[in-house]
Design brief:
Elements lengths: L1 H8 L2 H20 L17 H10 L14 H13 L5 H7 L2 H34 L10 H28 L4 H27 L6 H27 L1 E8 L9 E7 L6 H18 L2 H4 L3 H9 L5 H22 L2 H10 L2 E2 L7 H36 L3 H4 L1 H32 L1
Antiparallel strand pairs: 1-2, 1-3
Helix pairs in contact: 1-17, 2-7, 3-10, 4-6, 4-10, 5-6, 6-7, 6-10, 7-8, 8-9, 8-17, 9-17, 10-13, 13-15, 14-15, 15-17
């Protein structure tokens, strides 16, 4: 990764892309420190699982109650909803999905409008919930007008952040939304390490300190092992043999179609995090008046990352989104059609429908492995935090680690691709 980055910085075009990405991320981190007017961010001394999760994804923006407190989670949730509606639910969306670039623009526009709606609703819910948790100290004289003003400000921050992510995707390096989440997690890393060191070493008694040191060494080894495991699985792929009828048998007519074991990458984790945030945020709006009601407690238990039930629901969402996004990324029907057009086929498999069935079955098997892998990495630290009372930062560490490693690998792959493309173009010239 470091070697790739060093070589990429030597190329002017790629260096411009990297510097542009860093500039956008700097603007994002600057905005994350600007507190919304009329809000006392110091009152946010109490926390909940939702606040911890949002703070992890937004890079501490919520603890400052900044312009970017909502992060990009409303946009991701809107994307999920729009993609689900394309699956023969809304005919208009199905029609747009088949119209190529024009249809994609229309779907993106629908996603933006839905993002505005979700962001406004979530911002009101978070404001009401955090104000209740802080003992009405977050916002003085909370009224309908205040709700509307704060909702507009936070919604505007979300849309600005989404636009910044689009700029990274178009003119920078990596996927914009993923890079913003990545930057937020990395920004929180030094603080998390310091808090862990402070609690277990500095503030520990002389009798507790040796055991705490051993525990931190074990934790470091576990993190390194998980990083190695995540990197290994993320880079593993299944090579599907492909033969071409239009080439001579002696001319190297056989090649391979690589399919990643974890086809979906880290996207299901981001999707599941954003999807569980939305109902939790809406519930915060009812926290003040209905916190003792059975329906509220039941839903809070389901959509809380600090409960075993909530952790299991979160893992199930990851598994479901893994299968869903795998078939979105690799469409077996289009893949079989493209192979047939190119005069290519899989040995022992008939072209057309049989090839489509083959890829569908293969994707199901690969997604099973990928979903178990993602679910285990996300669930085990969370369960450990819930069972043994470890800090919440450790529980959310699995999610953060998956996102960081996944985004880093994808960015490295893109840089390698740009370097290879440059060498190829230079060779042709």
């Amino acid at each position: 990764m470091l070697t790739t980055l060093r070589n990429a910085l030597k190329v002017k075009e790629i260096r411009k892309k990297i510097l542009f990405t860093l500039l956008i991320l700097f603007i994002y981190r600057l905005g994350a420190q600007i507190t919304v007017p009329g809000v006392d961010a110091a009152a946010l001394t109490k926390s909940s699982s939702l606040v911890s999760l949002l703070d992890t994804v937004s890079g501490g923006s919520l603890s400052n109650y900044s312009l970017f407190s909502m992060g990009v989670s409303p946009f991701i949730t809107a994307q999920i909803v729009i993609q689900l509606l394309q699956m023969d639910i809304v005919p208009k969306f199905v029609e747009w999905s088949k119209q190529g670039e024009v249809g994609r623009r229309k779907l993106n526009q629908a996603t933006r409008w839905l993002t505005i709606l979700l962001a406004f609703v979530q911002s009101i819910g978070i404001t009401a919930g955090l104000n209740y948790l802080s003992g009405s100290a977050l916002v003085e004289n909370l009224s309908v007008q205040t709700y509307i003003v704060l909702g507009i400000i936070l919604t505007g921050g979300t849309m600005l952040l989404t636009w910044l992510g689009d700029q990274i995707t178009d003119k920078g390096i990596g996927n914009g939304v993923s890079m913003i989440i990545f930057a937020g997690i990395i920004a929180r890393l030094p603080q998390g390490v310091y808090e862990l060191f402070n609690d277990n070493i500095i503030n520990a008694t002389n009798s507790e300190r040796p055991m705490n040191i051993v525990w931190m060494v074990v934790l470091l080894v576990a993190v390194l092992f998980i990083v190695y495991w995540v990197t290994f699985v993320q880079q593993a792929n299944r090579k599907v043999p492909i033969q071409y009828t239009r080439r001579a048998a002696s001319g190297g007519s056989e090649s391979y179609l690589p399919l990643k074991v974890n086809v979906s990458g880290v996207i299901p984790v981001i999707f599941a995090s954003s999807f569980i945030i939305t109902p939790s945020t809406i519930l915060m709006f009812f926290q003040e008046n209905h916190s003792q009601d059975s329906w509220y407690q039941t839903l809070s238990n389901i959509f809380s990352m600090q409960t075993t039930t909530g952790s299991i629901v979160y893992t199930v969402l990851i598994i479901l989104f893994t299968f869903f996004y795998a078939f979105v990324q690799v469409n077996p029907e289009k893949l079989a059609e493209n192979l047939q057009k190119q005069g290519a086929y899989i040995p022992s498999v008939w072209p057309g429908k049989e090839t489509e069935k083959y890829f569908s079955g293969l994707l199901m098997r690969l997604s099973t492995v990928g979903s178990v892998f993602l679910g285990a990495v996300a669930l085990l630290p969370q369960l450990a935090a819930n069972i043994w009372g470890l800090p919440q930062s450790i529980g959310l560490g699995g999610t953060s680690l998956l996102i960081v490693v996944g985004v880093a690998l994808e960015t490295s792959r893109q840089l390698d691709g740009l370097m290879m493309k440059r060498q190829y173009v230079g060779f042709i010239r």
